[in-house]
Write a structure and sequence with these properties.
This protein is 40% helix and 15% strand. The protein contains 14 helices and ten strands. It has a seven-stranded parallel beta sheet with strand order 3-2-1-7-8-9-10, sandwiched between helices.
Length: 344
């Protein structure tokens, strides 16, 4: 069964970490290439390369380290001191070096897949250099994913696009064509998930494919993107940008850790109101506990704003496996159990 994630970022890594344990699933992730904040700003400006952080995160999410976590920790290591190097991860620096050695970012990705023993695909959505642009209901226009992601004040996005326009990679289009299920989110609505659908060819290919669409809703609102939005309004925007209806919508109904919830409220955020009904959503809504119980701590040297709480990979995996199993034949289910048994 071919499972495709579209998005990148921390949300996608949570999904990949849960599903990678099942060898009956062929996993692929299409990663956004518009990030221009933090270490990625230097990668773009000084080295002329596309952003590497979400590629690195996806590779590590697919890596099955077993009892050896040293390689993962080394790749994740972020320098907290040092002029010019502070804030960079060793993984990003190694990917820059590998790109220089092999001559392309695609070949560098393939080499790291070999080094980490990864069978899934990590696919850049585009190789064109482009900036994400957002238009707002007050007439303002902002260029740059980082500035859109961390606005100074709350405002409503009315439209996003790329400047200049960018073309999808052929591998991204092929992954959509062969997918049985396509997963959107969790992740920042405009800057992580929907930014991929303003790349030429992605929306058009998705509209033609027969894959079932699974959308995983976010745990909390975010300033400048989903604040004061309901779940139905959230889905309306998703379906507008992807050009087709969502088949499954996963909504968290578990409790957000108390300390983190208080900090979100103090910042003006809220749990997105669940107003999904049988009348306004024809797909299947799944309401269940999807939140991780632990509080996310900032890494040393990381100066970017990060989510305080995240989805739990095991809980996400459990619900997704139920969806996948509902369409499998008896033979496919038996084979899946067989491969899972020998994997575990």
């Amino acid at each position: 069964m071919n499972i495709l994630l579209i998005g990148g970022g921390t949300g996608s890594t949570v999904v990949l970490e849960g599903l990678k344990k099942h060898k009956d699933l062929n996993l692929s992730v299409i990663v956004g290439m518009m990030d221009d904040g933090g270490s990625n700003a230097v990668v773009r400006d000084e080295f002329g390369l596309l952003p590497l952080s979400d590629i690195r995160k996806s590779i590590l999410a697919l890596y099955d380290s077993g009892n050896n976590e040293v390689l993962r920790k080394l790749f994740l290591y972020r320098f907290s001191i040092g002029e010019g190097i502070k804030g960079h991860t060793l993984g990003n620096l190694l990917m820059i070096a590998m790109t220089d050695i092999l001559g392309s970012e695609i070949e560098a990705i393939e080499m790291f897949k070999t080094i980490f023993g990864i069978t899934g695909d990590v696919i850049p959505v585009t190789l064109d250099k482009s900036k994400l642009v957002a238009e707002y209901d007050n007439g303002e226009i902002i260029e740059g994913e980082h500035l859109i992601d961390e606005p100074e004040c709350d405002k409503n996005i009315t439209k996003i696009y790329l400047k200049p326009s960018a073309k999808a990679t052929e591998n991204a289009l092929k992954a959509i064509r062969k997918a049985d299920y396509i997963i959107l989110g969790p992740g920042d609505l405009y800057t992580t998930t929907l930014a991929n659908f303003v790349v030429k060819g992605i929306k058009e290919e998705l509209k033609k494919c027969n894959a079932k669409i699974i959308c995983i809703g976010n745990l909390m609102s975010k300033k400048g993107q989903t604040r004061n939005m309901t779940q139905r309004e959230y889905l309306d925007i998703v379906e507008k940008y992807i050009g087709k209806k969502v088949d499954y919508f996963l909504i968290n109904n578990g409790k957000i850790p108390r300390g983190a919830y208080k900090r979100y409220i103090e910042k003006g955020e809220h749990i997105i109101e669940d107003d999904i009904t049988e009348k306004n959503f024809k797909g299947k809504v799944i309401r269940t506990d999807l939140v991780a119980s632990g509080l996310i701590k900032r890494e040393k040297g990381d100066e970017l704003e990060r989510s305080l709480v995240r989805h739990d990979s095991e809980k996400i995996k459990r619900e997704l496996r139920k969806i996948f199993s509902s369409s499998q034949t008896v033979v496919e289910r038996l084979l899946g159990k067989f491969f899972s048994y020998y994997k575990d």
